[in-house]
Write a structure and sequence with these properties.
single chain; about 40% helix; Aspartate Aminotransferase, domain 2; five-stranded mixed β-sheet; alpha/beta; binds pyridoxal-5'-phosphate
Length: about 375
């Protein structure tokens, strides 16, 4: 065999899994067929063998199947980011002339997507406090889609999703929720009657702050609509290696979430006694029906006398940075986005308290994290 042939031939025997406990990474752009008939059947839509990774890849399918099972949904489709998943859902389902009711304090880039792409395309969008979706049975009259977060971004307001779903079904409205905060361990929206669940898998699903990814879980029919439009045509597909990292992340989702919860419980207990802290937002099992756990993402408001930049700069274990849900503890002072110039952002439009600070509690030792936090509070007054 010539060198070019050796270098380019298919490494077939090595492409099998050979009894390994982790799935292989199908790091391939295309899939070949044994014969003409098999290839022709796939092209005619008579088989669903993998064809091309933009559309379908077994490592990605493995992650999708795990997410569908965890959320209790029929099917799932993964994307290159949480925003890839959100834009796929909204752009595939919300058509010009339709009306969308969106929750206030929605993720800031979802807000920008709505303002810059959805509304200019002719979709009508109004924003409501999350509680209104449950309290007002007529809120959704005349709407086509309700787009929700519970808890909401930064404010962590929660709502009874079963009541929201019942109101929406009575009006024939399709419901979509971003469930990134709760993960399927703490809240399963499909069980409560919500139609579609979205995750930024970059957060707890990955858990290792090394991947950006998204996923949508829903009925087979809804997922097929997203899959047909978004993957082949928009092309925001998840890479096989990223899918493999997410499968790896899911192995430890349960123990990680237990540890985040234990640390958050410790913080909530001790924050209650602190004069420097005027408010704690940390939804938990008793906040609302259908929510069965506390995650490590909470927000607090610091009293007037606390110097927020000094507090942030004194922290040693907590670092300053966006995102959340990883092994490392992070803080985000809301004042940073409230001060941004230019087009009004979601925090400015919906009014986030300027003294709010969001904490993402990681997997460090809880007592060491608390000591660090306490020292920074005391050093900032
Ligand atoms: C981070 C985040 C997103 C966006 O996800 P990406 O993976 O960063 O694109 C969406 N919703 C919520 C609630 C988030 O925190």
């Amino acid at each position: 065999m010539s060198k070019p042939t050796i270098a380019t031939r298919l490494a077939r025997p090595w492409a099998e899994s050979a009894g390994s406990v982790t799935p292989p990474i199908h790091q391939t752009s295309l899939f070949t067929f044994d014969d003409y008939a098999a290839f022709a059947a796939r092209m005619a839509g008579a088989s669903d063998e993998p064809l091309y990774t933009r559309v379908q890849n077994p490592t990605v399918a493995c992650f999708e199947e795990m997410m569908a099972d965890l959320e209790g949904g029929e099917a799932a489709v993964a994307f290159a980011s949480g925003m890839g998943a959100i834009s796929a859902a909204l752009l595939a389902l919300a058509k010009p002339g339709m009306r969308v009711a969106c929750v206030e304090h929605v993720y800031p880039d979802a807000y920008r997507l709505i303002e810059r792409m959805l509304i200019p395309s002719g979709v009508r969008v109004e924003y409501f406090p999350v509680q209104a979706f449950a309290d007002d049975p007529d809120l959704l009259a005349g709407y086509d889609i309700a787009y929700l977060e519970s808890p909401t971004t930064m404010m962590l307001e929660v709502v009874d999703l079963a009541r929201v779903a019942a109101n929406a079904r009575a009006q024939g409205v399709l419901t979509i929720i971003d469930n990134s905060w709760a993960t399927p361990l703490h809240q399963r929206p499909l069980d409560l009657g919500i139609d579609m669940v979205i995750h930024s898998a970059s957060k707890y699903i990955s858990g290792h702050s090394d991947t950006v990814a998204g996923v949508v879980v829903a009925s087979r029919v809804l997922i097929a609509r997203l899959r047909d439009l978004s993957l082949p045509l928009v092309g925001a597909k998840l890479a096989p290696f990223e899918a493999w990292l997410l499968v790896r992340g899911l192995r430890t989702l349960v123990p990680r979430m237990r540890m985040h919860e234990a640390t958050a419980n410790l913080f909530v207990d001790r924050l209650a006694g602190r004069a420097e802290v005027t408010k704690v937002r940390s939804p938990g099992p008793n906040s609302v029906p259908g929510l069965n756990g506390r995650s490590g993402l909470l927000s607090i408001e610091l009293a007037e006398g606390v110097d927020i930049p000094r507090f942030a700069d004194t922290l040693k274990h907590f670092r300053l940075g966006v995102s959340w849900g990883g092994f490392e503890s992070l803080v985000v002072p809301a004042a940073i986005s409230l001060g941004q110039a230019g087009e009004k952002n979601a925090a400015q439009r919906f009014g986030v308290p300027p003294r709010l600070v969001r904490l993402s509690l990681g997997l460090e030792d809880a007592e060491e994290l608390w000591s660090d936090f306490e020292a920074a509070l005391e050093g900032a007054v």
